[in-house]
Write a structure and sequence with these properties.
Structural class: mainly alpha
Strand content: under 5%
Largest sheet: 2 strands, parallel
Strand order of the largest sheet: 1-2
CATH architecture: Up-down Bundle
CATH class: Mainly Alpha
Distance between the termini: 46 Å
CATH topology: Growth Hormone, Chain: A
Radius of gyration: 21 Å
Length: 432
């Protein structure tokens, strides 16, 4: 069951290695630094968790508003790499600047900017999958991206852990110095890992503008929404994705903040999440290879069910060893549900409109994550109980499972009726 990637596929995977360092930072050290800044400002633990959830929600709402438009513009000939570059620049510069901020509100504002740049870069990056590989290779290439992203992000993460230990345990560095070094390491790694793809990428699927790019982009975006309304297999998948991936991203964003709010040891929490990355690497590769023998949609169903039970387990978590168990379980399924969802979607959309469709994908995915973080923040504020806030996410996985099963049935019925599994499109399309 060996699988060998070509040069362009490997360079595409390298960007997953780069941006995953920022993802890991957001789920580990970044909320810990914010907790310290918030505590110095007299903010309580429950308010700290709620404010962090609200900031994450604002970021995802911004991406939901901007993602589809930028995705549509990226479909125009020669535009995808330019938009990709701008998004990386905004995210990486914002990340680097975070280290110099010690006021809790300004820290959150800059975090929103950096996270928005990161998420917008993924709208373009995901759409590149249609250009860098063939349809029959998408499941495994997508899985390799997440797998190597998890393991590759461990190097900068270990460096940042050393810096954090020098600050938190050895008292060799001040908090300000530690923050500056940590955020610079991640920003530089992010940019460096993006260069191979940026230098080699060529947009092979595109639409011609046929007019002013902004007007054409808006016109095309409206057309895509109408197309999705007619393509029920895409619509129901996106509705399912809205709910189940919302829960996944909320768990990623809130894991360390949740453990910190429960009073668990921060160093232990960070190391546990490093274990998540290590477990996710072989799991994503193995399940990606398994997609040759098991339909990817069945693997997605298995992951949704697993996440439901993981969320229920989190309600009763109050010990460090229980958090470690949670981290291992998340690692087993985290990469697979993301990778299979990305490749499943890429195979059912028109490749020359990948930017437009992945912009909408981001609305239903990362853009929709505001619901999960608001749910956690709102239930926590209302009940004063962090565990109930996190446990509320279980409902999202149940709803997502119901919609996804419906999407599978619609696609299967369409394949039987038409005798072709996917939308067939030309490499480019003239839009007047």
């Amino acid at each position: 069951m060996s699988f060998k990637m070509n040069r362009l596929e490997r360079k595409w995977v390298w960007y997953d290695v780069g941006n995953s360092a920022f993802t890991l930072l957001v789920s580990t050290l970044l909320p810990i630094f914010f907790n310290s800044i918030a505590a110095n400002a007299g903010i309580s633990n429950s308010d700290y968790l709620a404010y962090w959830a609200y900031a994450t929600s604002i970021s995802t709402i911004l991406v939901a508003l901007l993602g589809p438009t930028l995705g549509t513009l990226s479909d125009l000939r020669g535009a995808r790499r330019k938009i990709f570059s701008i998004a990386i620049l905004v995210g990486a510069v914002g990340c680097a600047a975070l280290g110099f901020i010690q006021h809790w509100l300004w820290f959150l504002i800059l975090f929103v900017l950096a996270k928005s740049g990161y998420q917008l870069s993924l709208v373009v990056y995901d759409s590149m999958l249609c250009d860098v590989t063939e349809k029959e290779r998408m499941d495994e290439v997508s899985s390799r991206g997440y797998a190597w992203g998890y393991i590759g992000s461990c190097l900068p993460f270990l460096l940042t852990i050393v810096v954090y230990i020098l600050y938190a345990m050895a008292n060799i560095l001040s908090q300000t110095a530690a923050m500056i070094i940590v955020f610079l390491i991640v920003a530089v790694w992010w940019v460096a890992c993006s260069l191979p793809l940026w230098l080699s990428y060529r947009q092979t699927h595109y639409v011609e503008s046929g007019g002013h790019p902004i007007r054409v982009g808006i016109k095309n975006l409206g057309g895509v929404f109408r197309e999705i309304g007619r393509q029920k297999k895409i619509l129901f998948f996106l509705l399912a994705f809205f709910f189940f991936i919302d829960g996944v991203y909320t768990i990623i964003d809130m894991a360390t903040a949740y453990g910190t709010s429960l009073g668990l040891n921060t160093v232990s929490l960070v190391i546990a999440l490093l274990v998540t990355q290590i477990v996710a690497f072989p799991s994503a590769i193995f399940l990606g290879m398994l997609s040759r023998r098991v339909k990817p949609q069945y693997l997605i169903v298995a992951c949704i069910v697993a996440y439901f039970f993981i969320t229920v387990y989190a309600i009763f978590l109050d010990q460090e060893y229980e958090f470690w168990i949670l981290a291992v379980c998340v690692g087993l399924f985290q990469g697979t549900i993301q990778a299979m969802s990305r490749s499943y979607y890429a195979k059912i959309i028109p490749p020359q409109k990948a930017g437009e469709y992945f912009g909408i994908y981001d609305i239903f995915g990362k853009g929709a994550a505001f619901m999960g973080t608001l749910l956690v923040g709102g239930v926590t504020d209302w009940t004063g109980n962090q565990s109930l806030g996190v446990g509320a996410l279980a409902v999202l996985f149940l709803i997502g499972l119901a919609f996804f099963v419906a999407a599978i049935r619609i696609r299967d019925a369409q394949e039987v009726r038409l005798g072709q599994p996917d939308i067939k499109t030309q490499a480019s399309e003239k839009i007047e």
